[in-house]
Amino acid sequence: MASVDAVVTRDRIIGDIAEILDVPATEITDDTNVLDIGLDSVRLMSLIERWRAAGAVRADLVSLAADPVVGSWVHELSMEQAR
Questions:
Q1: What DSSP line would sit under 27-69, residue for residue?
Q2: Are 58 and 77 in contact (CB under 8 A)?
Q3: What is the tens place of the pLDDT at every residue in 37-59?
Q4: Is 51 exposed, middle or buried (0-12, 13-18, 19+ CB in 10 A)?
């Protein structure tokens, strides 16, 4: 049986960012700085709540805001799944 946090994949992270910013997911890469494409703190909190609800307990404002690059977020949130 898969763990609950397994749903927070790279594709899920990029898809959620694209949805909340209303941009095509194809425009978001691991090198994308989410602040440069319009993510603000309110939307970031919304993303964090989505990911926590999906089981990503490591999703928190301080760590994600400190390094607002998609690849860093994927690494941070996927570390949780490696446990």
A1: G--TT-BTTTTT--HHHHHHHHHHHHHTT-TT--HHHHHHS-B
A2: yes
A3: 999 999 999 999 999 999 888 88
A4: buried
Alpha carbon 43 to its chain centroid, in Å, reads: 11
Two tokens, residue 46: 């919304």
d(CA 27, CA 24): 6
| Residue 34 near residue 68, CB atoms below 8 Å | yes
Taking the C-alpha atoms of residue 53 and residue 25, their distance in angstroms, rounded to an integer, is 22
What pLDDT, on the 0 to 100 scale, is given for residue 58? 81
